[in-house]
Amino acid sequence: MRIAVGCIGHETNTFSPVATTIDNFKKGSYHRGDEIITTFRGTRTITGGFLDVAEQLNLQPVPLLWTFATPSGTVAHTAYETLKSEFLALLQDAGELDGVLLDLHGAMVTDELEDVEGDLIQAVREIVGETWIVTTLDLHANITAKMADYSDVIIGFDTYPHVDCYERGFEAGQLLFGMNEGKIQPTMAYHQLPLLTAPPAQCTMKAPMIGVLNALHALETKPGVVTATLSMGFPFADITDAGVSILVTTNGDMALAETYADQFAFDIWEMRTAFTFNLHTVESAIELANETDGKPIILADGADNPGGGGPCDGTTILQKFIETDVQDAVIAVIADPESVAEAIAAGVGNNIQLNVGGKTDIQHGGPVALTGYVKTLSDGRFILKGPMGRGTIGNMGRTAVIQVGGVEIILTERRIQPYDAEVLRSVGIEPQTRKLIALKSAVHFRADYTPIAHQILDVDTPGVHSPNLFNYDYQKLRRPIYPLDPTVTYGETDAT
């Protein structure tokens, strides 16, 4: 069986000022043909999982194009059209196929198109006809009816942090095999809820999502159910279809799929008030750290999370750390190519005056003028060893560690979410020996840091990835929707 595989991926934060161009894809993750196989084989990724099951079941991968740009602002439509044309040309040239695996994100937006994945899946369908299409999506996908209409099966990540990517790729390969063997006739029901949730509440390592995930897995064991997906959505995309959705796929029984999807959606709706959480001010987080001898204490700076479109050069926590003269503290990371270049010019072991961060906008804090010691310089490359993406190569660009009093600042050329502890270890910082570690990450870091953290605190900082959804001026989002419209009842919106 010949299975085409590929990706055009992006998580678009429409509130982010960081533009997304064709260069962001070409200079990010960009692979064609057999390079896809050599890049992902042996990795804990969707495509890595698919390649392993393909080898076991004698499926022949037909690699097309795989590209993903770091989450950022709205994608230039011309960039998407260029990549789409390239993808479809490779698909046209692929010859006869028995299936297509689309390894997508589900929250990509251009300046002309809200539902990019729906558009791409439709274009693939027009080429392959009745050939099976299985689409894998992120847990933060804003799933649309169009995505569901043109896919035979959609499989979303179950976990956040996304530690089950490999398993979902493996599952996709198994399903494609079963569908071609005639053992599975997929019938998929799609339900959308009038519900937005913020990243801290979506974490499947704690309540309420632990219980939700258990219920989802229980649903998948029921007779006739092939797979089920709960997508919590990406609330930082101001589009009609942002938010929570449910997909249930059965083996040839649409009525059963609809029944289970409707019940699961209702159960999620009934617990909507459970998706709340507390945020700490930076000052109170520092005070809590000072009251305990335990280390490390992690401060989650989710509002400037580059994994959700943040510029990654916010300085709110850095400013407070310096003002309060905290000790044994780390800031990971601040993307500031200009300061990195100056640190490299100064050299290791020298003091330097810098204006750090705050160069993208003032929303995340302005530049911090400081005199620091150039402690470490690095090429910024490392191998991920944590649960997420284990075995893949991380690249921060040229990197410098600047020490100011008791604070070590990891400055990078590239925006990178520091969810893997190898970000710190690669520049000589052992996280377990530090008291305070501020990470520009909302949830993903928990997969690698929870086992070593004394305490984890979500901090209230300004930014385009702030979990306070009332901070945003939504213009295109369907309304009414909870919690922005607290009196809405399930069924009031058109999308149900």
Task: Tell me what you see in this structure.
The protein is α/β, with parallel strands linked by helices. The protein contains 15 helices and 19 strands. The chain has two domains: 273 residues, 3-Layer(aba) Sandwich (Rossmann fold); 185 residues, no CATH class. The strands form four sheets. It has an eight-stranded mixed beta sheet with strand order 12-13-16-17-11-18-10-19. The chain is globular.
Class inferred from helices and paired strands:
alpha/beta
Beta percentage is: 15-25%
Quaternary structure state of the chains depicted = single chain
Question: Strand order, biggest sheet?
Answer: 12-13-16-17-11-18-10-19
What are the low-pLDDT stretches, counting only 5+ consecutive residues below 50? 492-496
Major pleated sheet: 8 strands, mixed
Helix fraction bin: 25-40%
**CATH architecture classification name of the largest domain:** 3-Layer(aba) Sandwich
CATH topology of the largest domain: Rossmann fold
Q: Report the CATH C-level class of the largest domain.
A: Alpha Beta
What is the distance, rounded to the nearest whole angstrom, between the alpha carbons of the first and last residues? Answer: 37 Å
Question: How many separate structural domains?
Answer: 2
The number of helices is 15
